[in-house]
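quick one before i forget lol
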Amino acid sequence: MIAMFARRRSTLARMVTAGALLVAGCSGEKTVLAPTGAALSLSTGATALSFNATTAINARILTTQGQPAPDGTSVTFATTLGTVTPLTVPTAGGVATTTFSAGVASGTAIVTASSGSVGGDNGLRIAIGVAAVARLQVTATPPAVPFGGGTSVISAVAIDASSNPLVGIPVTFATTAGTIVAPTNVKTDPKGIAETTLTASQRATVTITASAAPSDPGFGTVGSTQASVVVAALPQPVPVVTVIPPPAAMAQTPAVFTIGAVPAAGSNTTITSVSMDFGDGTRVGLGAVSGPAIPVQHVYVTGGSYTVSVTAIDSGGGTSTAAGVVVVGFQAPSTVKITGDAGVPLPGGMEALVTLTATLTPPTLIGAQYVWAFGDPAGGSATTTLNQAQHRFPKPGVYNVTVTVTLVGSPQVLTGTATIVVQ
């Protein structure tokens, strides 16, 4: 009896619940509505849309027991902006789906849904048009204009909070310098990009603003989004100038510098003037010389450290200077050089008497002793106090002669070698 009573009570409860879900429609058919206490929630695949874009709106209804509402439960949708089609949709598996269309007005749509006494106070917010713009990604190509002026393409991509591009967004461009093609009434293309061309001869900051246009129904009610990009101006191209001092230089002896004067790459200029300052009060003009390795000589009167500079000017007025330091010794390096005469044939014709001379540099040096090694098979040698020596060389032959010189008043010892050919 108790079990039978429980079954009858359960059946009665189902009948009461079913009765609460049925309401007479104007057509005479019964409309199923959500049971009292059910929960209704909304979801969508996109909360930011371009103009005229669409997205699905899902309304899910769960009973107080957490179960999906019966199939066919009627849900009515409404929106404050744009449209939903259809307005009334039956559930399947506890979900009713309609399509939201953004329309042509910027703003934030609030979509609601209800079924009987359930819902109505919920709200799904969808940003439309300018209101959907989360940020602008701006680039300048190229990022700098040439010296003297040029153009750069300014591109702005309007994207939403999920980094999706937005189409048809009105964009305006403004610049601190130069001019812009079509600064207003530019709309983003199907890739969300709006472009313009900047023409400038100096550094410019371009500001891009996404805001509702006067023709937009949302004009005056929606905020704007801004971004900016700096377009630099390249400096005037100048010649490439180099100067390489000699590794060793001595006073009273020509010092050879290697200089370079080359027009800047891509400048379409030529070198018109090169001048050189040797750092000792001497400055010379070299004219319109050009090249990477130009030899220039200069004689310093006295030793010391000198800063040398080279300045080049090109046909575009570009000027460039390079500098280097040369250390000049106070005297020429000490050397000894051996020379030999043609030789005097000796009787018998098998030998020649050759006179050898050792020459010291600088000429102020004085030799105290000269030790000669003649390099012949007999191992001949001699010591003299003068800078000359004579030796009998077998004919014919090639001999490597060496002289070692001890200097007067100096611990320095000089050695020189020469090849003597006896014919």
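fyi The first strand starts at residue 22 and ends at 24.
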